[in-house]
Amino acid sequence: MFNHTELEKRERSPFVKSILIIDDNPDITLTFKEGLEAENKKRENNNIFFEVFAYSDPVLALSEFKPDNYDLMLIDINMSKMSGPDFYAKALEIDVNPKVCFMSFGLINREALREQYPSSLSIGCFIEKPITIENLIERVKAELEGPKLRFDEILKLVEYIPITGSLPSNGRFARNTTMDSIFYFESLQRKGSFRDIIRQINIELAKKIRQQNILQREDQKTTFLDIGQRYKQLREIGCSYPIEYLLFDFCLAALDKNFLDAALYLAHSFHILGLSKSFNLLLSVTVNEKLIHDRDVRRLIILLARSIEPRNAELYIDTYGITFRRRYELYREGLRKEGI
């Protein structure tokens, strides 16, 4: 066991990558830990530093597990006290965006694993033991880097999900399709789900929000959605409606579970603001399938609202009345719960 005191007291450099290793064979956890830490001493590895936390007891690891502490988890599948997939399912209740590689001796039957443990449906990283330290380090680095996608490239992944609907604003899952149904993303050459797309968008939105907080620039709130220019055009032709509220009002209505209002605001955002067709389609599925109860979807809506929230939103509470006040308070409470 390795405590997290130092990690909690300081803000980690982006070059420091925190790795969690869980295997009930202490020889493996020690070997992997020492191997990854030895990589830190190599001169050619000066662009990354591994901070490794190793446990041979998954129950203890879970009791000390905290959100946003780990960049990657290496978890053995078959452990006596708790299986790797069971640990991952419980970790998901604490951290909505954990990145994990499952480990096991010999060939891993991935389809059987996903059938037995639905929470592991979106996992694409599996490590077969035994593995050399050199190959382990190579796999870890590859997973940490991940596919480097622009926001628009992430949205294009929606095209691989079977979604019905004659308009981008009335999208629904095709029959027998769920958030966790797995499809092949040809552009990435790997499998994934609608949930995986949501989580990737959440990561990007969180990055944008951090940039906004640092730069404190209002124009940062619209450029990544490509609607900043549309705002300017509508103002120039004398549009009297506070157009910056359209997408924000969609988010508030969705959080309030008023799906009719949310659908109307979303349709207006598409036609008036020229919101991306792929993004509009994705958001419409969350409304029409009433997915707001899902933690990943709720986080998406909260992050989106925060990223495009008008600077003077609080001043409009009295103007828009009690409905807006209630929805706005729901949103603010969501921010507090998400720690944003």
- Sequence stretches where pLDDT stays below 50 over 5 or more residues: 1-12, 217-223
| Topology order in helix (H) and strand (E) letters | HEHEHEHEHEHHEEEEHHHHHHHHH
Query: What is the strand arrangement across the widest sheet?
Result: 2-1-3-4-5
Give the fraction of residues assigned to helices. Answer: 40-55%
CATH topology tier name of the largest domain: Rossmann fold
Distance between the termini: 30 Å
Overall average pLDDT: 82
Global geometry: elongated
Q: How would a crystallographer describe the biggest sheet?
A: 5 strands, parallel
* Overall strand count: 9
Count of helical regions: 16
Rg calculated over all Cα atoms: 22 Å
Provide the domain count. Answer: 2
Question: Regarding CATH, which class of the largest domain?
Answer: Alpha Beta
CATH architecture of the largest domain: 3-Layer(aba) Sandwich
**What percent of residues are in strands?**
5-15%
According to CATH, the homologous superfamily of the largest domain is Response regulator
3D architecture notes:
The protein has 340 residues and is an alpha/beta fold. It has two domains: 5-145, Rossmann fold (3-Layer(aba) Sandwich), CATH 3.40.50.2300; 198-338, no CATH class. 49% of the residues lie in helices and 11% in strands. It has 16 helices and nine strands. The protein has helices spanning 5-9, 26-39, 58-63, 84-92, 110-116, 133-145, 151-156, 194-215, 220-223, 228-236, 246-255, 259-273, 277-288, 295-308, 317-320, 322-338; strands at 16-22, 49-55, 72-76, 100-105, 126-129, 163-164, 172-173, 183-185, 190-192. Strands 2-1-3-4-5 form a five-stranded parallel sheet, sandwiched between helices. A two-stranded antiparallel ribbon has the order 6-7. Strands 8-9 form a two-stranded antiparallel ribbon.
